[in-house]
Design a protein that fits this description.
By secondary structure, the chain is mainly alpha-helical. It has one domain. It has six helices and no strands. α4 runs parallel beside α6. The longest helix is centred in the first third of the chain and has 46 residues. 35% of the residues are buried.
């Protein structure tokens, strides 16, 4: 059973990774770069400060920092360094078939994807925070695209992405539950849906 799942994962990865063009090589490299999305993060935080004032803004910012630490560290310390599953571009069985961009393969191990964990954690927290359908669709589509870029670039299997997405959403909802309890207890303003 494990061998069948692994084989499916390899084949699905190779299919998705093979769908490349020079234009999309450039686009996906930009999509995958962490600094690309700093304006998005800052924009969301600034909007929270503007709409809900400084107490809610500060508390949500602290929650997001905690969330980032949890998603980033657990994806590495509890998964990558425990399972030690080679990234596709480091896997001798298929590395010669993997399309990578600019010769960048990343660290040795890939399960789970930290990009997927971080983006889906952020998506889960902010979607629950805003409670707005359009924003929820937007932020989860963003997380999917960023996560897919990791397959496109040859550094993660689909299962790395799925595992990271599940882990990230767990932390996103977990941190939001504690954030919400703290907000209900100490802040007087009651947030409503964004729209």
């Amino acid at each position: 059973m494990y061998e069948q799942i692994t084989a499916f994962d390899f084949h699905l990865f190779l299919f998705l990774n093979s769908l490349h063009t020079p234009l999309f090589d450039t686009i996906m490299a930009v999509v995958s770069a962490k600094m690309t999305w700093v304006p998005l993060y800052l924009g969301i935080v600034a909007f929270i400060f503007w709409k809900y004032k400084w107490k809610t803004g500060l508390l949500s910012l602290l929650a997001m920092v905690l969330l980032l630490v949890l998603t980033d560290q657990t994806s590495v310390k509890l998964f990558k360094e425990v399972f030690e599953r080679l990234r596709p571009c480091h896997q001798p069985r298929i590395s010669h078939l993997v399309h990578i961009v600019d010769g960048h393969c990343g660290g040795k191990f890939g399960f789970v994807s930290s990009h997927a964990t971080n983006t889906f954690g952020f998506a889960a927290f902010t979607a629950t925070f805003f409670r707005a359908r359009k924003f929820t669709w937007f932020i989860f589509l963003w997380a999917i695209i960023v996560s897919y870029s990791r397959i496109y670039l040859g550094v993660h299997y689909p299962s790395d992405i799925v595992g990271g997405a599940i882990l990230g959403m767990f932390w996103g909802f977990f941190v939001y539950i504690f954030y919400n309890k703290f907000e209900d207890k100490y802040l007087t303003n009651n947030r409503k849906s964004l729209f």
